[in-house]
Amino acid sequence: KWSVGAQVSPAYNVSRSTHSQTYASNMISSSASNPVEIGGGVSVQLKKGKRWSVQSGIYYSGLGQSSGNSTFSNRNLSASADFATTVGKEYFNAPINIDASSSKMMMNSTAGVIEFGNVPNGLVLGTNLEDKTMALNAVVVSDARFIQNFEYIEVPLYLRYTVLDSKFDIEMLGGFSSNLLVGNETYMESDVGRSLVGNTKDMENMNYSGTLGVGFKYSISRHLSLNVEPRVKYFLNSLNSNSSVTYKPYTIGVFTGLCYEF
């Protein structure tokens, strides 16, 4: 039998990353909570025998990486007149590097280097008065959160095994996917709202992932069935090519949709 289906899924991203010591010493930390992304797509399945089947298709999936700032004493820092009144207090900070040749601002995150395309409203910078290179180094002193969004087109190849074959089927599934990067945007959220600030450097255009899951299928009619499939997807290689960053998150999603058999 052949079958075609359509599914949608909320997916939660869990960050996993390692960094070189130098990179990590100037890095904002990831947030405890990341945004939930919505994905989905269409599938094609060929049943081989009574219990085995092969599935492929095309899916859209997203990753959301949220980063927050850590507290730090600002005694040796200066910025605007408003900021000067807070000397000696704790504030939120994130290290910023300014490229001398391009004048672009960059910031280390757990997923890679964020490259700013513009200076967003609400971004306040401070510099170290004792640092002779203060024109090239600064910190974010405004209370802000940075969200990195990555979008992928995924082509999977799964093997499925039917554990229970009845009106209510239970299946095990596993396999691999090729993931093509089609979106890379970074946003800043602050008191003045949310704005696009740039993207993440050195993201790989193609990467590969593995998937494990359980499928529950309820037959609505002879040809039509309802599917619910919890899945875990983990990336096999780092999503960032920077040698100082290894970023290999995994996602947890519940795919729900309809399947038509013929």
What is this entry, summarized?
This protein is mostly beta strands.
Can you offer a commentary on this structure?
With 262 residues, this protein is mainly beta. It is built from two helices and 20 strands. The strands form three sheets. It has an eight-stranded antiparallel β-barrel with strand order 1-4-5-14-15-17-18-20. It has a two-stranded antiparallel ribbon with strand order 2-19. Strand 15 and strand 16 form a beta hairpin.
Assembly type: single chain
- Biggest sheet: strand arrangement: 1-4-5-14-15-17-18-20
Mean pLDDT: 83
What is the total tally of β strands?
Answer: 20
In the predicted model, the low-confidence regions spanning at least 5 consecutive residues are 71-91, 129-135
Could you state the order of secondary-structure elements as H and E? EEHEEEEEHEEEEEEEEEEEEE
Return the structural class: mainly beta
Q: Count the helices. How many?
A: 2
Main sheet record: 8 strands, antiparallel, barrel
User: What percentage of residues falls in helices of 4 or more residues?
Assistant: under 10%
Q: Describe the global form.
A: elongated
The first-to-last residue Cα distance is 6 Å
Portion in strands: over 45%
Radius of gyration from CA coordinates = 23 Å
